[in-house]
Amino acid sequence: MELTNQPMLIWFVIGYGIFMLLLGVYYSKKINTSDDFILAGKSLGPIVLMGTLLATWVGSGSVTGGQNSMAYSFGIWPALMSTIPSLLGILTIFLISSKIKHYGKHTVAEILEIKYGRWSSLLAAIIIILAFVGIVSYQFQGLGFILSVSTGISPGTGTIIGAAIIIFLACIGGLMSVAPTDAVSAFLVIIGLVVAVPIAISVGGGWDQIIANVPDSHTSFTGGLSFLQLMGYYLPTLFLLLGDQNIYQRITASNNDKTTKRGTAGWIIGLIIATPTISLLAFISRSLFPDIDPGMAVIALTSVLPIAVGGILIAALTAFIVTTGNSYLLSAATSVIYDFFAKYIKRDINDHQKLVYTRVLIPVLGVIAFLLTMYFPTVLAVQMYAYTVYGAGITPALLAVFLFPQVTKSAGLSSMVTGLIVTLFWEFFYVESTGINSVIVSVPVAIIVLIIVTLFTHNKNSSRKEGTE
């Protein structure tokens, strides 16, 4: 089947876009301080918290990369299994959520600084920028795909327009407006996905016909991938989630510990519904559209569904992509202002200036993210890079703060530096030649360094204390 644009779909995208804009403007009027902009005044209730956690995590990374691209490129089983790392990550976050909220910090770098000192904060800010700008870049691409399917413009032109929309919405309201729109988007997307599945199966000619139209490898358990290749896709997801600053900020923004637990539990339920459904839809799309960009799989399916169903689904996908782009742009800008600018350039910065500078910086980072779209060949490629930079550079040291109290300052810093350097070195020199994602090397090395340096320096520090006594 040939992919053709469906002009009627654009009205669903525009309609929901206007709704999001009005909601964002309404909540932006409640912003008086930088805490309101970045942490929503620590006022999020359980429903909004659940929705914003789900919408932040299941963004373009899932509907154009992640489960979507894996189901299209490798088959249904690898995509379905990719939900497991996210569930493991969320369960871990659930267990330490009270500790995260207790810290009450704007950025994970501020948490790291308490344990490892100022240099860890600066290094974390650099890693966050490298990772989050990459994540934002494929949100631009995802919205570009949607505009291409619904209007007929090229994906490149759509990406430019998508970038402008996401940057603008990120600037106006911060988390105060992003969180409520996230919640609405989360419920809409779950409805759209669930309704779309049986209809898509019917459009595809039934499940037997769908299976007959895909390569044999797409119905195998591994999709033709080796164990190392599968882990190369799964581990970046797990290690980004375990330390994702966006998630930590949302937990901090909840109004109490009880809300945090309820919101996180709801997030698990939403994920169990959303991500397998995305996998099924992308797999069906592979049967119908064998020659499209993998990142367009679920989005392309909207063009052959009944207009009402396709419209609801494409509006929901638009919402997830936009809100995820907003969140990561805001989070990256927050790190620059709080962890670098306010500490090293303008130490006397006041609260109003933090708010203004954060809003000014968002478009700058947005432009850098757009330029990054030209470097990586696919959404899945940039997704794995961004997740691994963060997962290897920050997550082991960050989790140690909560789970490994014996960790030392030297160990945390060594782990962060090692994770970042090994990831970048592998990405630039070995990914193409080996076909193995950098996470297979960089995360284990970062963890090993963390443990070994802790054992060495902890024993050394203990010996020094005994000597002075």
Automatic annotation (TrEMBL):
Any GO CC annotation of this UniProt entry: plasma membrane
Protein name, UniProt field: Sodium:proline symporter
CDD domains according to UniProt: SLC5sbd (cd10322)
Any Pfam family hit: SSF
Membrane topology: Multi-pass membrane protein
Xref: InterPro entries: Na/Glc_symporter_sf, Na/solute_symporter, Sodium:Solute_Symporter
Homology family: Belongs to the sodium:solute symporter (SSF) (TC 2.A.21) family.
Transmembrane regions: 6-27, 39-59, 71-96, 116-140, 160-179, 186-207, 227-243, 264-284, 296-322, 356-378, 384-404, 411-429, 435-456
One MF annotation (Gene Ontology) recorded for this entry: transmembrane transporter activity
Keyword field contains Transmembrane: yes
Leader sequence residues: none
Keywords: Membrane, Transmembrane, Transmembrane helix, Transport
